[in-house]
Design a protein that fits this description.
The structure is a single chain. The chain is of the alpha/beta class. The chain is about 30% helix and about 15% strand. It contains ten helices and twelve strands. The strands form two sheets. The protein has a seven-stranded parallel beta sheet with strand order 8-7-6-9-10-11-12. A five-stranded parallel beta sheet has the order 2-1-3-4-5, covered by helices on one side. Helix 2 packs across helix 10 and helix 4 crosses helix 6. The longest helix is centred in the middle third of the chain and has 19 residues. The chain is elongated and about 70 Å long. The protein starts with 5 loop residues before the first helix and ends in a 15-residue tail after the last helix. About 35% of the residues are buried.
């Protein structure tokens, strides 16, 4: 009699990991620890592409989808999956999943709150005074007099709003469709974006990147912010028009910008953003999930697909996120 286990043994169960993320070594170790008896291959070493069931990547290298005839899942390693979503050759009908994890929520909230506190409590100015040996007390700004606008009220936006509300800031939010959240005055759609921007002393940009959100904060939109406003861009690069931002800083309309994401990454060495006194920049480090949490989610989603269940945190192809 034929071995009834043979079909299962021959079923594609392998995982292909593309080590393009900044913490690739840690992610690879986590996948090794969580994979069980599944084969794990590291790009470009793919001895059996026909046995790859899951591709795990941040930015997929060119040609990575070639030969993956049994692919059943494409999995990102963070909240943003636009590089995977737009990758040439990604097979239609194969679920694309992003990472939703507590560490992402916490890390994003920490990064944004740090940027806001650094400005509202004048620590950037106090750093300058320390270097100049100047003892001078500045008038404290109180949170109750400051409104933070959160552009994007998804999981990360709401996770950031909660501690900001506890710290006493006024909150307004904007999203494609109206959201209801405690302590946040909600605005929605293009018709209400101008009013939302005019209320935002601090503008936190946490939108997914889509055709509609690319370049959404152009010169016209930035001009609607209150004079002296601060931009905190932590969503995806390409949403803030960088030339328009620099012009708004140079004119004094904006007082500062904290930027973690950019149109081109890594940020080119000749970019004016590097040396501009009105810019504080970081290299896309606002939030990162724990590698073990990523690995466990990958394994859970692959197992769910094999059981015929929908995976967790799948991208809606129609919306693009």
């Amino acid at each position: 009699m034929p071995d009834k286990q043979a079909p299962a043994a021959n079923q594609a169960r392998g995982i292909l990991f593309c080590p393009t993320a900044s913490n690739a070594d840690l992610l690879q170790e986590a996948l090794e620890a969580a994979r069980g008896d599944r084969p794990l291959w590291i790009w470009p070493d793919v001895p059996s592409p026909e046995k790859v069931a899951c591709l795990v990547a941040f930015r997929p290298p060119p040609g990575v989808f070639e030969g993956l005839a049994a692919l059943r899942l494409v999995h990102g390693v963070g909240a943003g999956v636009n590089a995977l979503r737009d990758a040439p050759g990604r097979p239609a009908g194969v679920p694309l999943c992003r990472v939703v994890a507590e560490e992402l929520d916490q890390g994003m909230a920490q990064h944004i709150i740090h940027a806001i506190l650094r400005e509202t409590r004048d620590h950037r100015l106090y750093d300058e005074q320390q270097r100049a040996r100047i003892w001078k007390r500045l008038t404290q700004r109180h949170a109750c007099d400051i409104t933070v606008g959160i552009m994007g009220l998804g999981a990360l936006g709401l996770a950031t709003a909660r501690p900001l509300r506890q710290l006493g800031y006024n909150l307004v939010g904007w999203s494609r469709s109206r959201k209801s959240a405690e302590g946040i005055e909600s605005f929605a759609g293009p018709a209400e974006m101008g009013t939302f921007l005019s209320r935002s002393d601090f503008l936190v940009v946490l939108l997914p990147i889509t055709a509609e959100t690319h370049g959404i904060l152009d010169a016209t939109a930035l001009s609607k912010l209150p004079r002296g406003a601060v931009v905190v861009a932590v969503g995806r690069g390409g949403q803030v028009d960088e030339a328009a931002l620099l012009a708004a800083l140079d004119s004094g309309h904006l007082s500062h910008a904290h930027l973690d994401v950019f149109e081109t990454e890594p940020l080119p060495a000749d970019s004016a953003l590097w040396a501009h006194p009105g810019v504080t920049l970081t290299p896309h480090i606002a939030a990162s999930p724990h590698p073990l949490a990523v690995a466990r989610l990958v394994m859970e989603n692959l197992s769910r697909i094999e059981r015929g269940e929908p995976p967790l945190h799948a991208v809606d192809e129609a919306r693009g996120y």
